[in-house]
Design goal:
OB fold (Dihydrolipoamide Acetyltransferase, E2P), 6-stranded mixed β-sheet, 26% helix, globular
Amino acid sequence: MKKKHLNRRQLWRIQKIQDDYAARAERKHEPSDGEHHPDDLGPEEKGLVISHFGQQLDIEALEGEFAGKIFRCHQRSNLEPLVTGDHVIWRRGEPTGIVIANLQRSSLLQRPNNFGELKPVAANIDRIVIVIAPEPQAHANLIDRYLVAAENSQLTPLILLNKIDLLEGEKQDELEKLLSRYSSITYETLKVSSKSGKGINELQNYLEGLTSIFVGQSGVGKSALINALLPGVNTLEGSLSKARDKGKHTTTSARLFHFPAGGDLIDSPGIREFGMWHMSPEEVLNGFIEFREFIGHCKFRDCQHNQEPECALKTAVADGKILLQRMQSYQQILHSLNE
C-alpha cells in the first residue's frame, strides 16, 4: 500500500504524540490523558530494534521484568520506517506488541534500494566497517562510496580485509596496495581471518563499547566474522558462487548483536552496488577527505574539477598530493549522480 503524504500540521501532530509517549516512558509509564489503551497491551516501555521484517520488528525490552528479552511487534502506520538500531517506545501484546514512537536518532545510514527509493539501513551507529576479501574481488569505487556515506553521516570507518588466509601472489600484492591507498589518507585498516582467527582479538577490541555495522559485498564473510567474534551465535554463512565470483545472500535483513563486554554489532545484507543519487555534488566532494584542503582554490568558482584550467584538485593530483585513482573514483561517482 502506498503511504499517504501528510501535511505539515499532521506531521507536527504525529511528532507531538510520539514525544508525549517518550515523556511518559521517562516518567515510569504514567497513564495517558484521554487516550484509550486496549487492555491486552502492556505499558509503554523503551526498546531497541534488533531486526526488522517489513512492518514487523524484533524489539528487545530495555527495562522492567522483561529486560533483555526479544518480542515480535508491529509498528504504527504513521511512523517513518524503523531500522535496526532504533530506540523506540513500544507496548507488549499477544501474540505481537506494537511500536508507538521512535526516539531521536544520533546517526542514520541510508542508501537507495533497487527501486530508486532512499531507505534507512541502520540507526544510532558509531562506526562503519567496510569488509572486503580476496574473493569476491574488492572494488575501490564501492569502498569510496561507503567512505563518502560515512563522512556525510559523521561515522568513523574501518576498512577490514577478511580471508587473509586466501592471500597469495598477485592477489596479495593488489590488496596490500589497495589498503595502503587508504591508510595513506589516514583511514584505519585491519587484516583478519575468520577461519584461522588471526586479527579477531584486535578487531574485537576495536569494536567493543561502540555500535558498529558491517557492510560490503555478499560473500566477503561478514556472517563468518560475527561467528568468530561471538561464538555460539551461529549466523548463517553463505558460499561463494564460483560461476559469477559473487557471494550468495545469506543475511536478508540487518540484525544487531551484543558484545558481552559492551558494544553492539549490526550485520547488514550484502550489496553489489551503492547508489548515491540522493547526495549533492558538494556532499560527494566533502566525502573525499584529502580533497578538502584544496576546495575553494580553483580559478573558477563553479569548477567541476574535470576539464577546467587551473583546477586546484587537478594540480594536487599532478603534484602527488591526491592519488589519481581517488580522483578517478570521485569523477565516476559524480557522473553517476546524473544517470
